[in-house]
Write a structure and sequence with these properties.
497 residues; alpha/beta; FAD/NAD(P)-binding domain; 5-stranded antiparallel beta sheet; 30% helix; elongated; binds flavin-adenine dinucleotide
Length: 497
């Protein structure tokens, strides 16, 4: 059992701060571990701010408190902050994990009023002002919950192992493994004289992440791997981007969606809009009544808030995001704040705020400021989001950017995207490394992180080949749609089925 330095409750009792807090702790009586924490409200007590999550929101909140006379504890289940906007680069072998992530402890090392703890938060006791970990309880005076979101499979959790989503470094390296492995297995089978495989990649969801993944996948197949295989021709890879709504990048103006679709087509991505996934099995995906073979399926369609949201006993929306009050606190608990992807908030026009890094960061600042106001005895201020625009990259020299009156697409949008992402990446070393990698890739088309780690089994590889053969039988033409058949014909010269 860890014995913490400052006023932390754990299974063996409570250890007071070493003279820093005047919090008084009552020792357990008669072997009973019902501990009572009594914090005196004297001026000399440093208010304890606990932040859950070292993502964009949590880190920004911690930094905002850097000069405040508070003691901050930041808890994260990972030891690193991940720059999620560049996760797709790891997933598509452009960058290595260490170039887009940094240890939280290192990021905050010079901020003396912060301690960083590695641990998974499992619940709360808001009445007793405690954050619960599996084997520990941490007291707080103010709490910021910034635990983010994950993927949602719309009630089909069984699809998750078949179609990984992209949220963490682990997800990115698993996706990278599957993508690279598909080409390797196809080459090996073909080299042994087996019928050559149709390499179908299906990306579900055409929001920014789906568009990035599909565009880069097509680029890898057509440029990066084009000349490296002896038996298969990766240029005949099929990348299918499927979207349930009527257009890609639905949160962008229609003209930019249209431009994105054209840029995707130029890269060789097939886009199907207004198409819902109705089934999934290893090696194939069903749209409506048609099954499409898929050696790799990636999920970029739904978002579900961290389960911690529901444990706060505050109202939540359908995605489990907490309906925070205007000042980011939760009803009945002015000392508890929820920010970032975990918070459901609307702007002045009633439009829901997007789940993006600037929202999380601005809310981190706002929550920290409201805590300092509360400590000063002032009233909290409502949060207002300043929308500076949004960007989505599609591939090499292909992107869209929406800055309100100024809308860009193609090369200028891509350059702006590169510049902004380098600027916000944490750590000088990472910025430098990423700049060098990108410049090198731009000139040479190489991707420097093409490592297959983990095992060499691809879910559905064998069933996908059965599916491809089945798709060529007359019966299957009934369920195989026209576009699919067309693509098989196009693929035929290089990739005999
Ligand atoms: C692939 C991808 C691409 C994106 N691209 C962009 C983009 O281009 N531009 C943009 O603005 N936004 C982008 N976003 C969205 C952006 O990353 C999020 O909006 C932002 O990260 C939200 O910040 P947050 O602090 O709320 O949560 P996060 O940054 O997700 O951080 C949450 C933290 O909480 C920790 N945590 C979760 N649960 C627990 C627990 N129980 N106990 C302890 N710790 C816990 C996690 O480990 C994590 O460190 C992208 C997101 C993804 C997934």
């Amino acid at each position: 059992m860890l014995a913490h330095r400052r006023g932390r409750i754990h299974a063996h009792g409570i250890l007071p701060d070493q003279g820093r807090d005047t919090a008084k702790f009552l020792a357990p009586r008669q072997g009973c571990w019902n501990l009572i924490y009594v914090a005196t409200q004297s001026q000399s007590v440093k208010p304890r701010v606990v932040i859950i999550g070292g993502g964009f929101g949590g880190l920004k909140a911690a930094r905002q408190l850097r000069n405040a006379d508070v003691s901050v504890t930041l808890i994260d289940r990972k030891n690193h902050h991940t720059f999620q906007p560049l996760l797709y680069q790891v997933a598509t072998a452009g960058l290595s994990p260490g170039e887009i992530a940094a240890p939280i402890r290192w990021i905050l090392h010079s901020q003396k009023n912060v301690e960083v703890l590695l641990g998974e938060v499992t619940g709360f006791d808001l009445q007793r002002k405690l954050v619960k970990l599996a084997d520990d309880e941490i007291p707080f005076d103010y709490l910021i919950v910034a635990a983010g979101a994950s993927h949602a499979y719309f009630g089909h959790d069984e699809w998750e192992p078949l179609a990984p989503g992209l949220k963490s470094i682990e997800d990115a390296t698993e996706i990278r493994r599957r993508i690279l492995l598909a080409f390797e297995l196809a080459e090996r089978d073909a080299a042994r004289g087996a019928p050559q495989r149709e390499l179908n990649f299906v990306v579900v969801g055409a929001g920014p992440t789906g568009v990035e993944l599909a565009g880069t996948l097509a680029e890898i197949a057509r440029h990066v791997l084009a000349n490296e295989f002896r038996t298969i021709d990766p240029r005949h890879t099929r990348v299918l981007l499927v979207e349930g709504g009527p257009r890609v990048l639905a949160s962008y103006p229609e003209s930019l969606s249209h431009s994105a679709e054209q840029q995707l087509a130029k890269l060789g991505v097939e886009v199907r809009t207004s198409t819902l996934v109705t089934g999934m099995e290893a090696g194939r995906v069903r749209f409506g009544d048609s099954w499409v073979p898929a050696v790799v399926t990636l999920w970029a369609a739904g978002v579900a808030a961290s389960p911690l949201g529901k444990l706060l006993s505050a109202p939540t929306d359908r995605a489990g995001r907490v309906r925070a009050l205007a000042d980011l606190s939760i009803p009945g608990h002015p000392e508890v704040f929820v920010i970032g992807d975990l918070a459901a908030m609307v702007d002045a026009k009633g439009t829901p705020l997007p789940g993006v890094a600037p929202v999380a960061m601005q809310q981190g600042v706002a929550a920290a400021k409201n805590i300092l106001r509360a400590i000063q005895g002032e009233t909290a201020e409502p949060f207002h989001y300043h929308d500076k625009g949004s960007m989505a990259t599609i591939g090499r020299a292909a992107a869209v950017a929406d800055f309100g009156r100024l809308q860009l697409s193609g090369f200028p949008a891509w350059m702006t995207w590169l510049f902004v992402h380098i600027l916000f990446l944490i750590g000088f070393r990472n910025r430098l490394m990423v700049m060098i990698q990108w410049a090198w890739s731009y000139i040479t088309y190489e991707r420097g992180a093409r490592l297959i780690t983990g095992d060499s089994n691809l879910p559905g590889w064998h069933s996908a080949s059965v599916n491809v053969r089945a798709a060529n039988t007359p019966e299957s033409a009934m369920v195989s749609d026209v576009r699919e058949a067309e693509t098989q014909r196009v693929a035929a010269p290089g990739v005999p089925l």
